[in-house]
Design goal:
It is a single chain. The protein is α+β, with helices and mostly antiparallel strands and 450 residues long. Helix content is 41%, strand content 22%. The chain is built from 12 helices and 16 strands. Strands 1, 2, 3, 4, 5, 6, 8, 9, 13 and 16 form a 10-stranded mixed beta sheet that branches. Strands 12-11-10-7-14-15 form a 6-stranded antiparallel beta sheet. β14 and β15 form a beta hairpin. α1 crosses α2 and α2 crosses α3. The radius of gyration is 25 Å and the shape is globular.
Length: 450
């Protein structure tokens, strides 16, 4: 009976792979079949429109005055013009049908790959006793006042935690406060604040081998998102104090400075230094980007990642584990936080043509994506402006980035809303093999736990 069920599962897997490939073929052929030569010309017009849009975005970011205004008009006119052409030819339905077929292909392909062992490894959970003397820092300004909105101080104290509410009008050294709490006998360190504050307290917890509690009260809290925590209601993070499990995750360092998300060099590292960045991020970026992107200001960077040299990029992002780049639905998320590898993303774009290539080419020359255990970022200037988990820093060049594998014990609620099983990566070569299979070649496999 088990053999029959396995064969039935594999048959469904095989036909799902065939369905995915068929949907992709139909999505590509539909404009040609429906419109003939006109459809082919419209398809080419669509590609030209995408290229013009990418070039216009480059000019918006790298120019000022009338040139920027003209580029903004082009960025709107180009896609609208393509849509108008399709509508005039009564082929607008083809665009939507092709998009639906692509969605069907992705869904069917993931269904086929779900039982091949290609799913990402899940982080192992450790059952540990609840803390007896938890210590929690709360930043009342984080997330626009989430600490007060969700009564985090009162709820944490009801659960037996010692709580320190940071003074928004005076700078306080959160690292010193965390170390003092450890000296006083705290057996858990927690913090409600932005990712930069999270990283500083996390480093103290890792140094002393204590569990660390993340409370998702910041504005974005990417670290909390990748841990599966509820970012809409940070009070649910406190459930970890009574009904929690521990995860062993990595911690990144840039010249001894900890980061839970990333260290940014080049363009973003310079923009985040702007005095008005916190109040007007878009305005601050548009003010500084023209000189930075055209290399009229800022240092010339060189990055070395485990022996691979990246020459003269405008931006380098070194992340605590790699971000997903191949999935539009999971773009910018990390499927693992315990791989022991830094993610490296470097961008070099010097013209509108290269900007278009970055958008249209499957492997653009101006984009470098890799993983490494050690990354060195150097410059032709003595100091580098760095955005460390969104915080503005200046560090002496070169900056050495490393990762401490599974150095951090993160205590999280046992039930977390943001940890649905991540879908497998789309592997078209694997799908072709599955579609061509005639017998049992892949049995259902459970996702491994790391």
């Amino acid at each position: 009976m088990g053999s029959a069920m396995g064969e039935r599962d594999h048959r469904r897997q095989r036909w799902a792979a065939r369905g995915a490939l068929a949907a992709v073929a139909l999505a590509a052929l539909l404009p040609l079949v429906s419109g003939g030569l006109k459809g082919l010309l419209l398809l080419l017009a669509g590609l030209v429109g995408l290229a013009l849009t990418a070039a216009a975005l480059w000019w918006i970011l790298s120019r000022r005055g009338p040139a920027r205004m003209a580029a903004a008009v082009l960025a709107v006119v180009a896609p609208v013009g393509v849509i108008t052409l399709f509508a005039a030819a009564n082929l607008i339905w083809v665009v939507f049908a092709s998009l639906l077929l692509w969605c069907l292909a992705v869904w069917s392909g993931r269904y086929a790959l779900r039982s091949t062992g290609l799913r990402p490894m899940r982080v192992k959970e450790y059952r540990t006793p609840p803390p007896r003397r938890p210590f929690i820092l709360l930043n009342p300004r984080s997330g626009g006042g989430k600490v007060a909105k969700f009564s985090l101080k009162e709820k944490a104290e009801e659960l037996g935690a010692q709580v320190v509410l940071l003074d928004p009008d005076h700078h306080q050294d959160v690292t010193a406060l965390a170390k003092a709490a450890v000296a006083d006998g705290a057996d858990l360190l927690g913090v409600a604040g932005g990712d930069g504050t999270q990283a500083m307290v996390a480093a103290v917890a890792a140094e002393h081998g204590l569990p660390f509690l993340v409370i998702s009260a910041g504005t974005r809290n990417h670290f909390a998102m990748d841990l599966g925590l509820d970012r809409d209601d940070p009070s649910t993070c406190l459930d970890a104090l009574t009904d929690g499990v521990e995860l062993r995750v990595d911690l990144g360092f840039a010249d001894g400075r900890p980061f839970v998300n990333n260290a940014s060099f080049g363009v973003y590292g310079a923009v985040v230094q702007s005095p008005g960045y916190r109040d007007d991020k878009v305005g601050a970026a548009l003010e500084r980007l023209p000189e930075l992107l055209t290399r009229q200001s800022g240092p010339r960077l060189t990055a070395s990642a485990d022996g691979t040299t990246i020459a003269d990029p405008q931006a380098v992002l070194v992340s605590n584990n790699a971000y997903r780049m191949d999935d539009p639905f999971g773009f910018g998320r990390r499927e693992r936080l315990n791989s022991g590898k830094l993610g490296v993303l470097a961008v070099r774009v010097d013209s509108a043509v290269e900007a278009a290539e970055l958008l249209l080419s499957p492997r653009p020359e101006g984009l470098t994506v890799l993983t490494a255990q050690h990354v060195v970022v150097d410059a032709d200037e003595p100091h580098l402006e760095v955005g460390l988990d969104g915080e503005a820093l200046t560090l002496p060049a070169p900056v050495h980035c490393r990762i401490a594998r599974r150095a951090l014990r993160v205590r999280v609620p046992r039930h977390r809303p943001g940890v649905p099983e991540a879908p497998p990566r789309m592997d078209w070569r694997r799908l072709r093999k599955l579609a061509a299979a005639v017998g049992r070649t892949a049995a259902p496999a459970r996702s491994r736990r790391s």
